[in-house]
Amino acid sequence: MANNRQNQDQEEISLRDIIIFFLKSWKVLVVSIFIGLLCAIGFHAVLPSKYEAIAQIQVMQNNFDKVTLIHSQTPWVIEDPSILITRLKMRSNYENIECEVNQKKITPDQLVDLVRASIVKAGVPLVELKIIMKSKEHAIKCAQIVFENIRRTHDDINNSYVQEAEYLLNKYQLKLKQLESEDVKLEKYESPTIGFLLRRNEIQHISDQIIYLSKFITFNKLNQTRLIAPIYASNLRASSNKNMILLLGILGGLFMGFLLSMRMNLWALKKT
Q: How far are the Cα atoms of 112, 119, 153, 224 from residue 81, in angstroms, in the given order?
């Protein structure tokens, strides 16, 4: 019973001492918090400006089957977004890219660190590209150069399919011309036999292939990886969190004020 009362008295004394301490030291604490806040504002002001350029890239889609080159209900992308993101993390991807800052070329190793890419939404061939630099204009320009490099790579892949389709189209057109020429000659002398009907079916099949290939070539020559909106850069410092810096300044000022107040109280006790 006596122990419980003693503990309660100690708690009351401790709480009273804390209240007295804050009442005596509130001016020091307020000044310290104010100084800490000023330091945080000054620190934020001298931070180097950084801008984040953002490019949202829609990867080229194709509605034609890769093997038959016939129109398909299931579109496929020229490069899977996850593979594209992995490629953007590789140094070799930037060896032919020339981004400059103040007339100084950025190295591939630096670009690997500057470029960030992510998938905007699962199942959608949309990649968000971000580049942080000290200059707004340089950030936008570099993002545009990286995007153009991605588009050229996709165009090269797409052109291989177009060239194959053009080769097959030329082959089918020559074959069709030959069959039609033979058909005109034999039509005068042959009755509608099985061979005659088979040749007509072959002509129809080749004609259909020519139509499919023509559509494929036209579609793919116009189809490109593209930006869904112009590249823009935020005017805010992308690398700094103003609210967090201010909060740290306030907490730091409070901590220093607390230490200073305790030191002043100790001095006062020693004098007495």
A: 17, 7, 13, 15
Residue carrying structure tokens 């200059």: 135
The amino acid at residue 201 is: N
CATH topology assigned to domain 51-234: Bacterial polysaccharide co-polymerase-like (3.30.1890)
Report the relative pairing of strands 100-101 and 71-77 from DSSP bridges: unpaired
> Which of the 8 DSSP states describes residue 94?
G
Residues in a beta bridge with 71: 64
Q: How far is 211 from 45, CA to CA, in rounded Å? A: 64
Q: What pTM value is reported for the model?
A: 0.65
Cα–Cα nearest to 75, from 40, 39, 124, 27: 124
In Å, how far are 188, 198, 203 from 192, measured between CA atoms? 11, 10, 15
Per DSSP, helices labelled H in the chain are: 2-46, 81-88, 108-114, 136-187, 194-222, 242-271
pLDDT digits (tens, 9 = 90+) for 29-81: 888 889 988 988 888 777 777 888 999 999 988 766 655 655 565 678 888 99
Q: Are 32 and 254 in contact (CB under 8 A)?
A: yes
